[in-house]
Structures are given as structure tokens and as C-alpha cells.
Amino acid sequence: MQFLKDKRLAASVGWTYLKARKSQTIVAVASIAFGIMMYVSMVGFMTGLNDFTGNLIFNTSPHVRFYNTTEIATTSILDKANDNINIISHAKPKSSLLNLKDASVAIRQMQADPAVRVVSGVVSFQSFFHVGKSTITATINGIDPEAEDKMFHLKEKTLTGNYDQISAPADNIVLGHFLARKLNVQAGDNVTVTTNEGHSFNLKVAGLIKTGLMAIDEQQAYMNIATAQKMMGVPSSYITEIKLSLQEKEAAPVVKAKYSNLFTYHGSDYLEDNAVLLQGEGMRNIMSYAISITLLLVAGFGIYNILTMMIYDKMKEIAILKATGFSNKDVKWIFLTLALTIGIVGAIAGLIFGFLMAFGISKVPYKADMVVSMDHLPVSFSPSYYITGFLFGIITAALASYFPSRKASKVDPITILRG
């Protein structure tokens, strides 16, 4: 009980010191509040931006994909006839189809894998869209519409028309939004498409899709896989790419290695396909945390300076307190109370203003023609950032008070009072 009384008395003295130097107290509180406000708002904005980018990646890119590549023939007939003669001149790719061997077997096995959520076989080929006398090159993806919708939510991204019209193997096609703009067509119009083999087809535009990535929306079109195989003149077993959506995206490298070795396919995962975007996410996190921590450290040094100056100003009062029975621990507690009060008040103010700032950022209109799902800046309001900011503010203040309080506790009352 006596301990509590002593601590209350020490806290009362500390509170008196705070009120006696209001301007310095306000500056210290403001510095902590500013640091936490910037931490909460910046981390919330950066995390919201990263979350939006991540969602955009996984709404347009599979976790794992398998494909064949065109390889250059580097071994000539002369190389095989005589090892001492090596002649390579204008080497050409090997004459091999891009279809995946035993694709139907691979798809069935992948569908049975508990780690795999969705499997989609795709036939992709370059084609020429004709607009008057002009020709635009784009990639047509023959897809399983149901599987692709489960993987990438294409129905939700259909701006006009009806995505379900490509569910049946009819001469319908869904165009990327920017590709349709180049072609100056709308849902319900017809387009003429020519394959690399020179076969022309008249297709009806079933709908327009906007994924959010311009590179896709101005270069991609979608149709039923059976229609694509018919246009290419290939059998139903012809598949150029297999896409996987996994239960846990972290398993992508393992799943890729497993089926690449099993079926001798080339494979890549979302980490490889989106390395630039993911690297940018990491850099944004580092920058936001570095700036926020720096601000809090600056605030901590401000508290340190204020407490140090206060000790020099209050030397005689501290000496009198010690002469009247205050112990070294009591003196330490006085200045710890000062710091914790500044830290708590500053942290609460910082959280309030940080939330208001983050809320204001989230209401800033942002209209980007290439992004379909964002009309305001993305901000995360995760409670973990607010808890971290509050604790960091208090810890910073407590650490800043250590050396000043230690110095105050070592004041010799006899020396000070003698002058």
C-alpha cells in the first residue's frame, strides 16, 4: 500500500512539472503524435496499395502455368557428322508444335490434386483483326469459360455484353476493352479475324472485358476452346497452356516443380511472372516503415532533450525532494511518469489524427481508365497498425526517458543545495 502511495506522490510531482512547462510538453506530445500519425497513415496507404496490386495480380495471373517454348536448333547435320566441325548460320527454331504432350492426362491428374483449386486448359494463338484497311495483331485465348471465371472472375469484369455466350462452341468472341476501342466495335458487332495460316473467320463480339491491366486489355481476346481449336484446325487434345489456381499460393514453387518434372513441361509461377510488381511492393514497404520509424526516433530525441533540459532547470527541486526522503527510484519514477504521459497522450492523438488522415486519403477520387475496380485511393485500416503505432509511441517515450531519469536519480542533494 505504501508503494502505491509513493508512486502516486511521484506521479503527482511529475504531473506538476508537466503543467509548469506547458509549451515544451505540447511540443513533445505533438512530435510523438506527428510520428504516429504519419506511421499509421503511410503504412495504411502503402498496405492498401500493395493489397490492391496483389489482388490485381491474382485476378489476371494464375498461381502456376505450364507451357511449351520455341527452342532454337543449335546442332546442325555437320555437327553430328563430325565433332570437329561446327557451323551455325541463322539458326531457326525447331519444327515443333506448341501443344503440351498428354495435356488431357495432366489436367485430370492436376484436378485430383488436393493442393489445386482450379485447372484451366488454354489454346492461345496470334491472330489478325481487320479494321477497314488496317490490321491489328492480338492474342486469342481459347478457354474453358467456367474454369477461367472461377480463376479470374471474368464475368464480374465484363463491361457490356454476355460472357456466357462463349460457354458454347459458337463463333462468338469476348474482346479486351482497349482492343475493342482500337477496333471501334461494341458488343453485338462482328469482326473479321485471320489466323497465321491464312484462314479468315467472321466472329460476333459477345462482350467486352476490362481486367485492369492495359497490357491484357489491349492485346487479349477470349473464345470457347473448341472454337479456337476449330479455327486453328487442330484436334480437341491440342492444348498450349495449363493454368492452375492453388488452395495456398505459397505452394506454387513446389507444385510447379512437381508437374514440370512429371510431364517435362516448362513451368512458371506467380513469383516469376510478376517479379517486377512484387519487388515494387517490397520497396514500398521498406520506404514506408523506414520513414515512419525515423519520425518516431526524431520524436524520441525530442522527448530526451526536453527531459534533460527539465532536469537542469529543476536541479534544486530534485535536491529538495531527495533531501525530504525521495529515493533514487522515486526520482526515476517522476521522470518516467513524465515520459509515459507524453507518450500516451501523443500516441492517442497520433492514432486519431492518423485515422482521420488515412480516411481522407481513402476518399480521394482516383479515376484511371486502365484500372476497372478503383475509384478512390486504396487504404488499409488494419487494427494491427494502430496497436503497433500506440505501443511504439509509448516505448519510444519510455526509452527516451531512461538516461535523463537516471541522471536525475544521481543528483547529490548536499552538493546542489550548497550551490
UniProtKB/TrEMBL annotation:
Residues 25-257 form the MacB-like periplasmic core domain. GO terms for cellular component: plasma membrane protein complex. Keywords: Cell membrane, Membrane, Transmembrane, Transmembrane helix. It is found in: Cell membrane. It is a multi-pass membrane protein. The keyword Hydrolase does not apply. The chain crosses the membrane at residues 26-49, 286-312, 333-361, 384-403. GO terms for biological process: lipoprotein localization to outer membrane. Residues 290-413 form the ABC3 transporter permease C-terminal domain. Belongs to the ABC-4 integral membrane protein family. LolC/E subfamily. PANTHER family: LIPOPROTEIN-RELEASING SYSTEM TRANSMEMBRANE PROTEIN LOLE (PTHR30489). This is FtsX-like permease family protein. It comes from Haoranjiania flava.
